[in-house]
Design a protein that fits this description.
InterPro entries: Glyco_trans_2-like, Glycosyltr_2/OpgH_subfam, Nucleotide-diphossugar_trans. The protein is mainly alpha-helical. Helices cover 57% and strands 6% of the residues. The protein has 28 helices and 10 strands. The chain is globular, with a radius of gyration of 28 Å.
Length: 728
Amino acid sequence: MDVPLDAVTEFPPSADPAAAPFLPPEAPLAMKVQNLRQQPDRHGRPFRTLPTTPSFLWMRRLFVFGGALLLTGYGIYRINQVFNSLGVSALGVIILILFAILAFWIALSFTSCLGGFVSLIRRGGLGLGIHRTGPLPELKNRTAVLMPTYNEDPTRVLAGLRAIHDSILATGQIDAFDFFILSDTTNPDVWVQEERAFLEFRKATNGEKRVFYRRRHKNVDRKAGNLGDWVTRFGSAYQQMLTLDADSVMDGSLIVRITAAMEQHDGVGLIQTLPVIVGGRTLFARMQQFAGRVYGPLIAHGIAWWHGSEGNYWGHNAIIRTQAFAEQAGLPHLKGRAPFGGHILSHDFVEAALMRRGGWAIHMVPGLFGSYEESPPSLTDVAIRDRRWCQGNLQHSKILGTKGMHWVSRVHMLTGIGSYVMSPLWLLFLLFGILISLQSHFYHPEYFGSKPTLYPHWPRVDPVQAKLVFIGTMGILLAPKALAFIAMLFDRAALRGSGGVFRLAVSIVLETLIGGLIAPIAMLIQTSGVISILLGRDSGWNAQNREDGRVSLKEVAHGYWIYTVFGLLLAIAAWSVSQALFLWMTPVLLGLILAIPLAALTASRDVGLKLRRAGLLLIEEETAPPPILQLAMANDAARERAAHDPNAPPEEAFAALRQDHTLLEAHEGALPPPRKPGSPIDANLLVGLVKLREAPSLQVALERLTRQEKAAVLGNPEGIQLMERLKG
């Protein structure tokens, strides 16, 4: 499905940019819902080995999985000597099983990072003919840049999109791209703010023919449905689509290079970039962005090294072949009720798996920088987001049996499930460790039994072997950080941007210590999430908090006292068993007991900025920001100045529309078509219209209308007329 650049969209001439239609003419593309119980139609494409599959990929996978199995086997042998050296006990077997699962998890990460280290040192992580530098390739086809948004601050979202637009403009290839703001917003005030921000964006960029806005009045199937709606309405006009998130920023040259790679390789369905976290100001966000920038490339290079053409999709900052997506990525609803049934929440993994199932290659290019995102500002915000991600990943258990799926795609889903299931398993490992120590505490060994023997029966728990297992496990856990540090020494710009060798080393130690204290809190948060999902509780869908506002200590205490209490109970239990066990568990106990001050400290903007001034937790992108981030920061600064302008337009929807007739006309021109006889009746609209008719003034109407009713009347011509007639 090639769409050449000369196939430009034609619009009727308009003297007023605001009078131009919000959307281009529709170009429908069929998107069939996939049957997971049947083999897909691959249309003659190969499946096992694709044209872009790297040579000897099987050897890389053998090294990663074979090495992980060998390390796990050795660990099992050692832990068996600790607990079951002279016989098998029930608690010893349980500990052994839990250890085997947890050990394989960290061993697989370690061996993958070894591959990533080799790729980093050799400056790999590209492929598909992509080059880091040199002249930009000329694009031949049209690409849509898609910015989905859901109840986000539109000025903030469009500040990032404007930076992307201007960066592409600087490459000289802006005519190859159209920009779509795809709103699923349900807040009526935010909806009207989006329209105003869109009109301002379009006017500032002269983008009447390339910048578009669409709001779905019924946001079916959330983000996946948002993108699916665009594909079915406009997809055939674009060979590729670049998917973004509300906090995404991408460099124009990076976009041109991956778009050209897609054009040059007909069998590639998706190319995922490595988003680097930027813009962090709280201690927690700065730790996240430091870890992402220092350890992230090592991890990403590792998985790309052995994923090859069976890569994954992270939901944004990726370019997708529209035909491949429409042909293979139509998501079915899972049988049963939420949280396991219904709409697929973590749709990105599944979409990538289905495209690969259909014979399309999925690649990742971690060696190409210029892709950015933001981190939630606090542990609390991550916990809220993780609850939704946890549900989505656990849903994948119902997709693992999909027919025709590549085994690596199944590994992706198992990895996603494991990233949350490991927390309750770790908790069980700790609790059973206390039980087995308790057993040893009350068990009085008989060194010489009733039968004559030359050798004594030593106790089953061997503290020396336990110490060796602990040291080995910690070594494998911390090795990726050491490898990332060594790799940074070979990248002078990144090393200089991180403050030099000494500050980088101190920052890694600081991040490791604080992260280690936070880890048991995160373990309990994720464990509670898993339990709530197993109990049938749905996560819902809420907009993500991206602002780092101050949080009071009282609010933190209200959310984290339970972890402190659990830590104290665990400490009492460990101390009652033995002082040695208590000391052994000190890192876990400290993190839990200090949960409240840790959550408050890491959510602090002041602490984060003080560490930045001290030269700690620095990354290259903040000490020497690339042009795309300079654009984004300038746009964000202008946005904040405009927000504090005393003449700023009102945020409330009715007031905004009544004050700005240009905005009102544009809003009316974008309303959905009127209801047809026999269509479902919108109760919110009917009630909202009645309330508007009976309201004596605007203020009374605003007090009586619910948010859903207000959104319904704003989407109806009669509701707009009634709103205009209100006094006040």
